[in-house]
Fold each of these.
Amino acid sequence: DNELLKVKGLKKYFPISNGWFSSKEYVKAVDEVSFSVKKGETLSLVGESGCGKSTLGRLINGLIKADAGDIVFKGDNLAEASETKWRSYRKPMQMIFQDPYASLSPRMKIKEIIAEPLKIHDPSLSREEREAKVKSILEICGIDYYHSDKYPHEFSGGQRQRIGIARALILQPELIIADEPVSALDVSIQAQILNLLKKLQKDYQLTYLFISHDLSVVEHISDHVAVMYLGNIVEIAPREAIFEDPKHPYTKALLSSVPIPDPKLKRESIILKGEIPNAANPPKGCKFHTRCPLAMSICSKEIPIMKTVGDKQQMVACHLYQ
Ligand code: SF4
Ligand code: MG
């Protein structure tokens, strides 16, 4: 099959440190997470802040090391790979961040910022070849080369995200991990950046892991959506199933705050009670039971397991469906 990335049983626990010493307690940031992404598709990871979605992105990218589980990229298990092997995947796997300003060096001209990864990974290129590549990628991303002698602060937020995308693309990656790439932007600019990402995906067969707290942002870019809560995926399904027929009460709650253009259609409105619990001491059984409007007595005792529900490759971990 054409799976580009497959993650299985991935775990990352962070010890809780209390100033001087670390206790024996852990934040289970990512707890037995499994999914796969096909080449050329987009999987969105959605959940509230603290659900582990950014940690998951950083594990896959190798910025942090997993405690257990497999990260199979193009057939190689990176979780068991050497430093050298990881380094060889620096090129085909790139990241885009929420705040391009923070990730762009303020003292470098943007043409230097974009040329830098090429200098590292393609040192045999001549100066002219490098400049030609930088020019072409900037223009593909909607920045006129005329502006390439400027510094990041001279650009707007949306333009800076275009520069961040150009820098990620210059090495012709296959997988892009985009962590909240439009959350810092105005809604009208968000749409422009999402359209650019979609066009780039089509033109270059890119695969996206798209991390967001906002289901309305991922609605038009996703092929599949995984909903995370306190370190677990609670529902994973094709986009249409998530938006038209969500199963997990948490997915339904996230969706009920997404506006629908057609006022005749109505989504079940679910208001969540309370805050997301402390990840160091999550509720027993279903971690969502303290906020779930449909919780039953079994929910605080037994952990629901992932099950396929219906005929749309929809998987959900909830006692309502077992
Ligand atoms: Fe709600 Fe129970 Fe389902 Fe958890 S398992 S989401 S508490 S109904
Ligand atoms: Mg985050």
Amino acid sequence: MASSVVGGIHKAQEVIRAAAGQDKKSADLSQDTADVNAKLKLTTDHGVKISDTDHWLKLANEKTSGPSLLEDQIAREKVHRFDHERIPERVVHARGTGAFGTFTLKEAIPELTHAGVLTDTARKTPVFVRFSTVQGSRGSADTVRDVRGFAVKFYTDEGNWDIVGNNIPVFFIQDAIKFPDFVHAVKPEPHNEVPQGQTAHNNFWDFSFLHEESTHMFMWAMSDRAIPRSFRMMQGFGVNTFSLVNKEGKRHLVKFHWIPHLGVHSLVWDEALKIGGQDPDFHRKDLMEAIDNKAYPKWDFAIQVIPEEKQNDFEFDPLDATKIWPEELVPLRVIGELELNRNVDEFFPQTEQVAFCTSHIVPGVDFSNDPLLQGRNFSYFDTQISRLGINWEELPINRPVCPVMNHNRDGAMRHRITKGTVNYWPNRFDSVPPATVEEGGFKSYPEEVTGIKARTQGPKFREHHNQAQLFYNSLSDYEKQHVAKAFSFELDHCDDPFVYQRMVLRIAEIDLTLAQKVSVSVGAPTPEKAGRQNHGKKARGLSQLDFTPKKPTIESRRIAIIIGDGFDPVAFNGVYAGVKAAGALPFVIGTKRQPIFADGVDPQTGKGVTPEHQYDGMRSTMFDATFIPGGSHIKTLAKNGQIRHWISESFGHLKAIGATGEAVELVNRVLRDVDGLKFAAQGTGVVESYGVVTAAGPQKPESFKEGWKMVQNATDFLGKF
Ligand code: HDE
């Protein structure tokens, strides 16, 4: 029977896995993985060895190479295959990157669900996670202002479970039928396909004004949340309301959260803009770099739970995806941990072909009547058909690690072969009946529903301002300042006064002071009266500052160390070693990429330091902090406009700057020019609010200690941001 074939495949996987110490998904993928380094001879796709892959077959003579011949099946195959390499990019979230990892359950919740993945703490469930931006095309820049996707596929023993979330807990619309309008409005405009990777255009803000329900979400999108420092430093949210069902059949509504161990950190806008040009792959590379360096990013997995019978007890509707469940009302419970620990082997078959579906749940998890979720459950499956074809679930990255058996058949690119003479159920042979609930069969929650068919929405779905104000009120002063600047940038890019003028009025419904500030920058009449009184309430968990790790860390942060010939080797070596010991990544930036020699080292006989980069190849924006050791090289560095710019730009982006010995005066001089500031020129000091740490004390043996102390100060400082 067919099932024994599938069973056989699984047996084979078990054997491979056991032999290689791999998790189930890695073993599964290894069956389809070739290795370009295996030193095999090139072949055609039908397996024939190729003797020449560089020259098309031609009718040549001694004088000329002559016409190319169509009969060259090898050249034709090569070019045909190439012609068809592209598939449609995702209609939203086209730009993204992914990694493999492990989900570990820390606390079983059998009282809430019978899902194996949430009740068995002995399991390690393999996962694949894809992070993305929303608006831009596949080749757009990583650091644009946008919502980030945070999609997790759990390969559980009971089938795949996808939590297809974002880094912002709410959404722009409440009903899935609005999604095409919303996406059309946010994407580049139809007449000129502009702008790319930005919401800074008339159509987006026109839509936002016309949909009051977007108000809460666009406040988040204008906050620092929309310009994360790293995928590793952002929260994830399931956004929609799902449900958990326990063995007794009791149901709770649930929201899913991912909380990064490194804290929630953002770029500043100027940095994000510059990195967009300097390194459009910044986030993609950051994730790969961290995993390569074994600084595996981790998130706590938390749930918020509302018993079914309490769902009407709140002033908001828990099924409305434009609302959060404030922590004060529905506490977060951390029950698991996600770790990303393996980069993909090849981008296309893994990160590009991975396909998520909100409708992919496992027994013990169920949906809710959240109208956004219900539409999503239709859309994701459908979109995969146009992107990947009907057999997309057979692709290696998408197939589950448990047996698959059913009578779905055929379709383009069918891969699985099922033996047997029947393809229907029941049949005249020993047909296996569907699984009972006890055997793990999925049973939809038997919810009792009565109602009248109507195109409508629940009454509490009509309130749109309370939580937008709650969010804004909960931000720190500097986060609020960033929101004002973000609106100023976005609305400044709208050239239709109708759009930006009425948006200012909408902002005045959230906060008058904010609207007044924005009106000045964007050229709208300054509102004198709040469109609606601000209720002044705040909640926990909305400001990024609420997620500062208890123990600040610079683990996996990128630290630039700038040197030229004549640097102080003691300070250099001390800080380099200190940065490494703290788990951060030191990058030596030189005045050249050839070996650089320390003070007192003879270039003919001594050993130099070969920098990772020359300053032309990098900018301060690529690093979290900069250190400049003292030494006679400062004479050269001080004359270099780019180095001086590096220091002032770092400072402007609120980054820690360290300097010892002669470098202190250089930093002092540059920052005095920038901001009239003067930093501790003596001893070791950290100017807390500015993050500049200098140690001008003795330079020889003791300065290692000085340098180390400085790294610690900088660590404490940096860890707060
Ligand atoms: Fe999506 N969304 N979405 N979305 N979404 C897609 O599916 C859709 C929504 C999210 O890394 C598409 O495979 C509808 C909310 C992520 O591959 C598509 C609605 C949230 C990803 C689709 C929403 C998301 C997608 C396009 C409103 C946060 C990328 C390609 C009802 C919880 C997944 C694809 C990946 C992708 C539809 C709203 C997150 C068209 C109809 C809310 C992270 O199916």
Amino acid sequence: MDWGMQNRISKIIRPETGRSVMLAVDHGYFLGPTRKLENPNKTISPLLPYADALMLTRGVLRSSVSDVTNTPVVLRVSGGSSVIGESLANEGVITGMEEAIRLNAVAVAISIFIGTEYEKQNLLNLSELVNEGEKYGIPVLAVTAVGKELGKRDQRFLSLSCRIAAELGARIVKTYYCDGFEKVAGSCPVPCVIAGGPKLETELDAFEMTYNAIRQGAVGVDMGRNIWQNPHPVAMIKAVRAIVHEGAKPKEALKLFESGKKKKAPASKAKSR
Ligand code: R5P
């Protein structure tokens, strides 16, 4: 692998552990002002020091994130549909590679909706993005999206989607945790991270999902709502980090979370400028 490509990937997947805690805050690109992400700066600032990478759109990056941050940016570059529109799958590439480079992104992210009427369009978009990314050493992260059909998150569907994403050249794949996840990770020849999905009932549920995903072959998480929709988001991301990077068990993570809850979060910083 070329130096630039490898260097960017190692900014996301930390070489010390071979793992990653990415913070996903890109939800507004199709959901609008998602709960607890209404003011992105307020949500993102306290969490930034604990994220190995931040996944978001160029609009929120420019408007709501300090330009002196050292946290690497994974730029969401697919979009063009909304939760109230005809189909979430009808996405295009909304941000070009030059813009990603200008924004100092370490990777670009695109969703693919396998099995929908837009499958071919999505896969050609992914392939074209990979062609561009490989030219400049920018890794492409493919998200195996399910749209509103959360029930689609089973092992067969996710294995198929992840494998196709990797075959088409994605350097990292983001998918969901499911029963039989080891088959999903085991048949995907590039690193997989898991999304958290909608907020789970308890913190322990989120820790167990994270722990099981890592044990079954994920290199980490690209998690959003289970972190920042929690009333104690900093304690939450720290506990997730302990599982991903230090091998903490779910109940150990819960203890850390409980003790972290009592600490006062530092005041959020305004965007510099
Ligand atoms: C995926 O396409 C979304 O835009 C989010 O990045 C992803 O779902 C991860 O966030 P969450 O953990 O909230 O599911």
Amino acid sequence: MKKIAFFPGDGIGPEISAAARAVLETVAELAAMPMQIEEGLVGGAALDAHDDPLPEASLQLAKTADAVLLGAVGGPQWDARPPAQRPEQGLLRLRKGLDLYANLRPAQIFPQLLAASPLRPELVQDVDILVVRELTGDIYFGQPRGIDVVDGKRRGFNTMVYDEGEIRRIAHIAFRAAQGRRRKVCSVDKANVLETTRLWREVVTEVAREYPDVALEHMYVDNAAMQLIRYPAQFDVLLTGNMFGDILSDEASQLTGSIGMLASASLGEGRGMYEPIHGSAPDIAGQDKANPLATILSVAMMLRHSLQQEEWADRIETAVNQVLDQGYRTADIASPGEAVIGTRSMGEAVVAALRAGAAA
Ligand code: NAD
Ligand code: IPM
Ligand code: MN
């Protein structure tokens, strides 16, 4: 029996994760895979119920599951709270508590959506990028941090810090991923200014010696942001620290047409967590407008990386391709003049395509 911890979260989280859950349940049924999905609270929903963005029961649920599926957290109603009392802290504590140091964010092009990208089709048609983002270190977790008062002026401070072990383990993930792809790693840093990332560059270079079949390139983050738009097809694996990867993966999502298409897997030595890269989209929450495909594609990553069900991961991706072939579009991926459907209908279309594929 596989146990899945299910955290819908806030904003569009419950809508997109309901669609993804239905896909997962359909797979469990069609594959006759015994599965128990247990729901828990994280983020603003947990703050409202328990005054804690990650109640102990939720952490325990995640720790005892085979995999975690998460929607998204956050929203304006919690923005004024002190840092530890924000929904985002629940997500960060979950990542840290499960030691999910490797965040894989594939930005791949669905040819049906070439027209949805803000870039010209010839620039994006050959794009296939895997962002490998370190997820449990960097300025997100470094101490000291805070806001204090110095000489009568308020001062905010954070600490960007990585030790070589943290860099080494994420670098190995990137090189191994590259070996199964086009054998190129571009490591992103700001080694011309920041000591933390100077060490990053040194350690990544050391690790690269163990992978002579993979070409390593270093790029400053400002240039990488520019190159992602100028010539995105040059990238294979993009290896980044926590903050640069957060920013560059949102940027990379636009190559595919929408942030609503980018799935992710967060991996460590144990169970994995699966979530779209986007947030809770408060501007469209509760309106049946959000694109659930990023979360549905995250379920495919769960089947591949945590449940050893490669074939069903492929089938979900095939089903997504089919609904796009059939012209189903949520608003974010629709071109002018194309008919638009809602979150629920998109989820149902994927389930129908899965069932049709299994019956064939
Ligand atoms: P966001 O990703 O929520 O939204 C940015 C824009 O993209 C919005 O216009 C939104 O409508 C659109 N968008 C996002 N997902 C979409 C989808 N599936 N379909 C269609 N459109 C989609 O980022 P934001 O507005 O900067 O943040 C909103 C809240 O989400 C904040 O509280 C933030 O902290 C939180 N957040 C959470 C996560 C997470 O849970 N992993 C990630 C990012 C942001
Ligand atoms: C993401 C989000 C999170 C991050 C926030 C909500 C903590 O932006 O998953 O990309 O910065 O990692
Ligand atoms: Mn982000």
